[in-house]
């Protein structure tokens, strides 16, 4: 299935596996790439050394194009950009808008830049700076999310920019891909659907916790890190919702210390990242401190399998999923079903 996305990146199918922290590692990314989609490594939860090793491992598993998701506000963002250029990674994606000089540097080196955005004005900004495409996630999506549904956010972005737009938030099958293409998108991006595959390294018990949820099984909360965050409903999330401001800040500081120990970051480096986050998102210091909750709470659930002490980011789509396919089965079924739907529509005409 050829679209502006497949032409831009060199993949066979217009399906993107998003860079989910603690989830999108070499095994999942390479399986996606081998199946013809665009797999994206999640580097925000990796040290520089871990990212370098993950890129090399992914390349040892596949010769197909893949990408790396970067934090534009990371203290070593420029070093990571240099790493992507040196290793000839095909795509650099960003959770926050990269600075114009970052886009220019990657562009000059032949790396495709695809930021994730949550509003038409953000898409216009990065397109003006030279981004090659954007991923637009509607409110149905998991993790940090906005309040506008994909069905409204997607057309607003498509009307605002001339670069390829990849639709995210609520996609899981061929009907979604066909619908996204009908809107004018160049493809779809999925997180939760890829988390629930055979190649995902998330513990099986956690995967089955996702599969047991219905469409009301997620909630958007600001008590994880101070920003709207869509996660699975759980006793822990309910507890966080009831917690007072002081206890939330104490918990966040504790998790900041744990994350520092895990990554080897100095307190000074963490402060620099906090300052960048504060100004980049116009946050209060309380919200910046709360953001320290995210990596370790997600790790407890997605890596350690502790559903009692971890947070599980999830799109609403979890309520419609009931199986654990391989990445190859998932992508091929989505594309095949989308092609059948498009053919039927042509016959009707």
Automatic annotation (TrEMBL):
Record GO terms (molecular function): monooxygenase activity
Alphabetically sorted, this entry's keywords are:
Flavoprotein, FMN, Monooxygenase, Oxidoreductase
Gene3D superfamilies reported for this sequence: Aldolase class I (3.20.20.70)
Pfam families recorded for this chain? NMO
InterPro entries reported for this sequence: Aldolase_TIM (IPR013785), NMO (IPR004136)
- Name of protein: Nitronate monooxygenase
